[in-house]
Amino acid sequence: MTTRMEIAGLAAFVLAWAGVAVAGQAHVESARMERVSDGTYTVIVTVRHADEGWNHYADAWQVLAPDGTALGTRELVHPHVDEQPFTRSLRDVRVPEGVDEVRIRARDKVHGYGGREVTVTVPR
Questions:
Q1: Among 6, 36, 46, 104, which is most buried by a count of CB atoms within 10 Å?
Q2: From the CA atom positions of the chain, what is the Rg in Å?
Q3: Cα separation of 122 and 84, whole Å?
Q4: What is the pLDDT of residues 52-104, one digit of tens each?
């Protein structure tokens, strides 16, 4: 026979897990690059994620070379519960010669990287 305590515990677990599933992964909606006079780039990225608060929010996005080398990471230090999607930039990104495209990916505190990515052509 199942006790009320066991049912309450199971219900709490299911509700907690459902909350994780609702927010899902962080997705890159769009991205662009601007070349700066010193040869570096400013990368502007729009991310969408159903931020739920401090325990589950999009906490970074990253610029990757085709071989997977990280060229820059923008850390996001707070949730954007009421600002979706949101756009942030990263300055001073150095792109090696011969790299014509970069990938942009987003990360959230629960799922890590893995949502929709965007490929951007490097302006020369």
A1: 104
A2: 19
A3: 26
A4: 899 999 999 999 999 999 999 999 999 888 888 999 999 999 999 999 999 99
Q: Hey, what are 29's tokens? A: 């909606």
| Domains of the chain, start order | 25-121 (2.60.40.730)
Cα(95)–Cα(72) distance, integer angstroms: 9
Q: Which of 39, 48, 34, 37 is nearest to 90 (CA)?
A: 34
pTM over 0.70: yes
Per-residue pLDDT reduced to its tens digit, 37-51 = 999 999 999 999 998
| Peptide linkage before 123 cis (omega within 30 of 0) | no
DSSP lists the bridge partners of residue 88 as 45
